[in-house]
Amino acid sequence: MSMFFQRLKEVSSPTIGLGCMNLSHGYGQHVPEIDALRALHEAFEMGYRHFDTATLYGGTTNERLLGNALKDKRQELLLASKCGMAIDADSGKRVINGRPEILRQQCEASLARLKTDHIDVYYLHRLDRDVPVEESVGALGKLVDEGKIGGVGLSEVSAQTLHKAHKEYPIAAVQSEYSLWTRNPEIALINACQELNVALVAFSPLGRGFLAGAMQADTVFGEGDMRANMPRFNADNLPKNLAVLSRFQSIAQSLEVTPAQLALAWVKAQGSHIVPIPGTCSIAHMRENLAANSLTLDSKFLSELNLMMTPDQVAGKRYSTAQQMDIDTEEFGQQ
């Protein structure tokens, strides 16, 4: 059993975790601290035990939030964070830096913000193309040896990069966007993770709200909402994508589950080594998502879902050209 799943077992965690980014970052909304703290407390009480954050989120605000909310529950959960990508204090711009000394500095700062002496899984948030992945992972491995982190993770990397990194130091988990309408991990990463006994942690398993029915053809994304720059959500592509959503919603209705629960059940069904971490600011949605932990789909519905929203049916790429430059994942259509 990998370190990641051993820790999930130790804390009796459901196989659905909580992505905490939304509380501080990404979709333009501002959640008052008192409400965000209440949401995290409620999440723990309803059963979440796997909480995921990052140095980047909210310019370190999200880590501070989790530190304040969960410090008294630290031994009862799997706490994950990320390094190697941060907001520069002077320019306010996002900076990717995977140099060993930077990762160590960021880890020490993350530990302080999270009010803990160790982080269970610490991910390299993005591959720094100017630093060999072996150097970055080697530095994280030293942090494991020192007891400051429990396991090394990677985010948005290809199967090839995973193999290179794993030879340097065993990788506990890889984060990648994975949902019914984002199938990129199926190109190679899912199999690579299974082969190496690495957990695949699926972020945005609800398609950034799309699969949950959170948007309409005329939806306008506010300032600071990353979806405003993602091709699938623009005015040309969003109506086309919504047109392929109705059958999915009909299946959810026939099963007497919500579309979000159906989307999570589909991700979970793709492999026992896959763990979705949906994010939300809503306590009601947290509860709704967690209920999908016990939902199992039979082969008939799985087969039908597998044929929906395949890459040829989805209008628009998942990232803009600029966003794509920061990631290392395989893309459909690559030679």
From TrEMBL:
Pfam families registered for this protein in UniProt: Aldo_ket_red
Residue ranges of domain NADP-dependent oxidoreductase in the record: 16-305
Coiled-coil positions: none
GO-annotated cellular components: cytoplasm
Keywords: Oxidoreductase
Record-linked InterPro entries: AKR, Aldo-Keto_reductase, NAD(P)_OxRdtase_dom_sf, NADP_OxRdtase_dom
GO molecular function, one term: oxidoreductase activity
PANTHER family for the chain: AFLATOXIN B1 ALDEHYDE REDUCTASE, ALDO-KETO REDUCTASE YAKC [NADP(+)]
Protein name stated in the entry: Aldo/keto reductase
Gene source species: Vreelandella populi
Phylogenetic placement of the source organism: Bacteria, Pseudomonadati, Pseudomonadota, Gammaproteobacteria, Oceanospirillales
